[in-house]
Amino acid sequence: MSGLVCRDVVARYRHGGDVLHGVDLEGPHGAITALIGPNGSGKSTLLKAIVGIVRARGSVVIDGDDARAMTAAERARRVAYVPQRSLLSAPLPVHVVVAQGRFTHRHSFARMRDEDRAAVQSAMADADVEHLACRPFTELSGGEAQRVLIARALATGASVVLLDEPTSSQDVRHALELHAVLGRLRERETAIVACLHDLSEVRGLADRAVLLDAGRVHAAGPAAEIVSNEHVAQVYGVEIVDGAGLGYRMLDRTGGPS
Amino acid sequence: MSRTGWTWTALVSALLVASIASLLVGEGDLGDDEMRATFLRLRSWRLANAALAGAALAGAGVLVQGLFRNPLASPSILGTSAGASLGGVVVLVVWNGLLAESLASRIPPELLLPMGCLAGAWMSLVVLLVVTGKDAGIVTVLLTGFILSSLFLSVGGLLMSIAQESWELGRAVVAFTLGGVDAKGPRHAALAFPMVAVTTAVAIGWGRHLDLMLSGEDEARSLGVDVRLVRRWVIVWAATLTAAAVAIGGNVAFVGLVVPHALRPFIGEEHRRLFPAALVGGAAFLVAADVVTRALPTTGNVPLGVVTGLIGAPLFLVLLARASREGRIA
């Protein structure tokens, strides 16, 4: 299968136990795959393991090539990663931050080429951050900063894009615009894997879903099937209720309404 | 003209003015036709060495601030300068003291000092990184740097006491430890210049790597930076620049902190722009500070580090207070 394929991924942090216990994940081209699960289930760790931030065992294959055999630069050209928050505390202008996405496309002393400029421009337009181009990154709101990080990921031109809770800091309008951006990427045959918390968003946005629970895959398949009362009740301990509060009702420990 | 253009104009003008003042100010009357050429030659070498040491320290400051993602870092605050100074003292003691009768003692100390300083600077940065770890907060880094600095100065003091047994060696060690660019000649400049020039060329080439490191190692790695390689080489470059500066001018504090910080509002954070500007700014700053040591109405020589410390220490306190107010102290 082309796109992203992970098999039996096991990961642990340096001073802790295993966070992932043999996770399988498929992120095909032209599809949005939602990675869902309760807090601490290993969603973010899986994304970090794929891009090499967290050391992991198992197999990560990108379009048929073993990611473990790739250099950091090769991997970055193939997989783009959008963290939930950036640690960047220096006031670099937004256009410089987005241009960092072209890092692996240029030699050390090389200037930006026309194709680099075009990629940066297009990424900024797609993520709706053109008007922020000269603003210092450190002066942006959480939502603006996250869109800049998304633009940086788009500028890489990678065929696989991983996003860690991309809409968590977005207002409703920008969340919907981000959905549109991801939709356009899907049309361009990009493989998209996104950690998401909002299950109604998963149903509206994703084609496929992988439900993680305590570092293991509980269920995987079409998003509409995975975000069902059966799985949600087993993993989250809640029941989906249309028109109620957050859209859910608490269940007691036996699975009945509390 | 852009803000960057104005800044560069100001930097070059400052360097020119400081250089002219450096040639004109000092003991000795330039009106003396017989001695004028000698005075100017001596002051020219003093000027060249001050400019090189200042450029090297400011460049090292930019590099360690990028490496630690911390604008409060500088070679003197992290203990790198003290480590380089200790390395220089060790070389002086070993070569001039323990091996006094051997062939090695016939090698001029100007040749050996940079090597000792390099080893000391490199060792201090490696120890700092090992002790603090990669994601240490500002306080951890600063405290560790302070402790290392104290340790290196203590060991240096011990060696200085041992060196006092030999009058000549003791004099050499004390002169090196006090620092300053007076009595520094072409051999000092010729040895330090390649270290500064090569390091500068390579460091500018790696500017984009350092920009990415500002986002933390995880993000940098995800964007394709070979983080371990960058860390290793940045340590080597920062240590080389610090060693070159200490070999010329001794342990001159705060240049690496003051200059990059003063330039950031005008030049920005991008290393490819900030690094060369810091070199020129550092050169201008230390040449000017050296002029001040000569212009002060004192009977004895004022050490160069006293002037840089009087400017740098208050600025450091202001930066620390601001970081504390903004909640960046961790």
Strand order of the largest sheet of chain A: 6-7-8-3-9-10
Distance between the termini of chain B: 40 Å
Percentage of residues in DSSP E strands of chain A: 25-35%
- Mean of the pLDDT scores of chain B? 85
Q: N- to C-terminal separation of chain A?
A: 44 Å
Principal-axes shape call of chain A:
globular
Number of strands of chain A: 12
Classification by helices and strands of chain A? alpha/beta
The number of helices of chain A is 9
Order of helices and strands of chain B: HHHHHHHHHHHHH
Outline of chain B, from the CA principal axes?
globular
Radius of gyration of chain B equals 20 Å
Mean of residue pLDDT values of chain A? 89
**Helix content bin of chain B:** over 70%
How would a crystallographer describe the biggest sheet of chain B?
A: none
Alpha-beta classification of chain B: mainly alpha
Oligomeric form: heterodimer
Low-confidence stretches of chain B: none
What does this structure look like?
The complex is a heterodimer of chains A (258) and B (330). Helices cover 33% and strands 26% of the residues of chain A. Chain A has 258 residues and is of the alpha/beta class. In chain A, β7, α6 and β8 form a beta-alpha-beta unit. The model of chain A has no long low-confidence stretch (mean pLDDT 89). Chain B has 330 residues and is an all-alpha fold. Chain B is built from 13 helices and no strands. Chain B is globular and about 65 Å long. The N and C termini of chain B lie far apart (40 Å). The mean pLDDT of chain B is 85. The interface between A and B is medium-sized, with 32 and 23 residues.
Descriptive tags:
heterodimer; A: 6-stranded mixed sheet; 4-stranded antiparallel sheet; 9 helices; B: 330 residues; mainly alpha
Short recap of the structure:
Chain A is built from nine helices and twelve strands. Chain A is an alpha/beta fold.
